[in-house]
Write a structure and sequence with these properties.
Strand content: 15-25%
Strand order of the largest sheet: 2-1-3-4-5
Number of strands: 5
Shape: globular
Number of helices: 6
Structural class: alpha/beta
Radius of gyration: 15 Å
Amino acid sequence: MEAGLGVGPGDGLEELLARAVRLASENGAAGQLPFAALVVRAGIVVATGVNTALRDLDPTAHAEVAAIRAACRAAGALHLGGALVVSSCEPCALCHSAAAVAGVARIVYAAPKEFVPDLGYPAPADPADLLGRMQAGLRALAPEQIGYVATAGADEPFRRYLSARGGAGHVS
């Protein structure tokens, strides 16, 4: 069991990751960006979130941010000390930062960023890869806070999204 988290490999972590992937697949099939996250405290899912950036025209409407917002509302607090974020995909710098601000103890994810195909996302290319460098910097500052857990079907949300959007892009 992971210290202080109430969730470890024998305690349902695989099921939580599978649930995040399932939510991401459903979101992708609905034409939204295929990402989802859960916030878990003391082994209980207190909130979920999916990416609604396309629907809301909000570049900050990421799954982890939505789940953290919902968990804070459910807790009636701005701090989620001891919480675990379970994500369908490797969190970006925005999501990692939101977790840190909320006091999330650990983040685990099912799909590394290398699994993400060209989703036809409407954002312009970032020639300086600022977000990628920020993400790498956050990971270097707190490597113990975030970890990849290989999860069966972790690439399925991307396939469902591309299918719903008419097959643009490709899954690696």
